[in-house]
Amino acid sequence: MGILSQLSVIHLFWAATVFCQYEDYDFEDENDEEPDHQYPYYFNFNPSIQAEVPRFPFPVECARECFCPPAFPLSMYCDHRKLKTIPNIPSHVQQLYLQNNDIEAVPAGPFTNVTFLREINLSHNKIKFHLIDHGVFNKLSNLVQLHLQHNELEEFPFPLPSSLERLLLGFNKISRLSGNALEGLPNITMLDLCNNILDDSVLKGKPFANMKNLMQINLCNNKLQTMPPDLPSSLMYLSLENNSISYIPENYFNRLPKMIALRMSHNNLQNVPLNTFNLPNLLELNLGHNKLKQVFYIPRSLQHLYIEDNDIEIINVTLMCPSIDPVNTNQLTYIRVDQNKLTIPISTYAFFCFPHIRTIYYGEQNVNVNKSTQLRTPVFRRFLTPEEYDEEDDNHESHDHETEDDHEAVDNYFYPYF
């Protein structure tokens, strides 16, 4: 029994030692104490295609102005530090965060020994085009993501490395695209040029035509009057809100069969050809705040339709749905039609054409010039089956109390990350 007692004591001591090892390690540290940033970009990549980084001892080298968390040894955080210059970057760094500073220039010096950089965030600074050393980014052969939004760029920064996949240039002063600015970027999948000063003359050279992997382009809040020419067939998300586009050429979207979301609110559209949006994969269509007078054909794939604040007097369901196919039903679930000139609700025939419809937001209508009116039913909500109710998102529970502000929130241009 003495021997057994001694073994029991030894076993308990060993178990306590192991437990304490785990108890001392705070699993929450990596998440809770992570600065308010997105997680490092390399987590989204297949490890087999990452640039190989040599093993390094701890603690890793870090610029004294910055923070290099042990949990993410390949990242260096230099954001929100009132920096006016870019610090020297250790050679092992893959993610560099310099947003929200007072940086005006991007010299080549700090990037001299950098080989493995995959992401640079220089957003919310004061960077000017002529203060970017020529070729400073082009030498970074592993760079896949570059944030330069919210700066003072007057021109598209180039040359850029062919490895680049995501380029964010929104909220600058870009009014020019040099003829070869977008050449040599075969891997670009997402390009954000919202909130700049681009007009039709900039796009005459068809700068996007050869970007064969481009899936998303944001051109909202510019000065475009016509649709951008020769977009690549790979495109899936197109943002053109807050421009001055007045028409869509017939068959314009025939070469864009992969389109999933199209946002063209706050333009000057008056009439669109009936079958303009006959796209097999379209899920979201936003044409709010235009001057449309009638509706158009709705593809069977479409789920969300926004046509608020137009001049529509009646919703002609047969134009939207010329035939009913019990096997291949329309997927439309939500329509927003407030701030039009409707005097009667949508015909009940719509519920045969669109059997999945859940919500029609009528809101207030602009029937009279000086006074808005409201239909008897400002919001139509179809009674859901128990199965549908379980699938309904929590943020749809208050549709009966929706306001203009609630809906305006969805009018923002595409969030850069899908």
Describe the structure.
It contains seven helices and 16 strands. α3 (200-203) links the parallel β6 (190-192) and β7. It is 12% helix and 11% strand. Mean pLDDT is 84; it is low at 12-50 and 405-413. It is mostly loops and 418 residues long.
What's the arrangement of secondary structure elements?
Blueprint: H1 2-24, H2 29-32, E1 75-77, E2 95-97, E3 119-121, E4 145-147, E5 166-168, E6 190-192, H3 200-203, E7 216-218, E8 237-239, E9 261-263, E10 284-286, E11 304-306, H4 317-320, E12 334-336, H5 350-353, E13 359-361, E14 364-365, E15 373-374, E16 379-381, H6 386-391, H7 404-408
Parallel strand pairs: 1-2, 2-3, 3-4, 4-5, 5-6, 6-7, 7-8, 8-9, 9-10, 10-11, 11-12, 12-13
Antiparallel strand pairs: 13-16, 14-15
Q: What percent of residues adopt helix (DSSP H or I)? A: 10-25%
Strand ordering within the main sheet: 1-2-3-4-5-6-7-8-9-10-11-12-13-16
- Describe the main β-sheet briefly: 14 strands, mixed
Q: How far apart lie the N and C ends?
A: 66 Å
Mean pLDDT: 84
Report the uncertain regions. 12-50, 405-413
Total of helices = 7
Net shape: elongated
Helix/strand class: little secondary structure
SSE series: HHEEEEEEHEEEEEHEHEEEEHH
| Secondary structure: number of strands | 16
Estimated radius of gyration:
27 Å
The percent range for strand residues is 5-15%
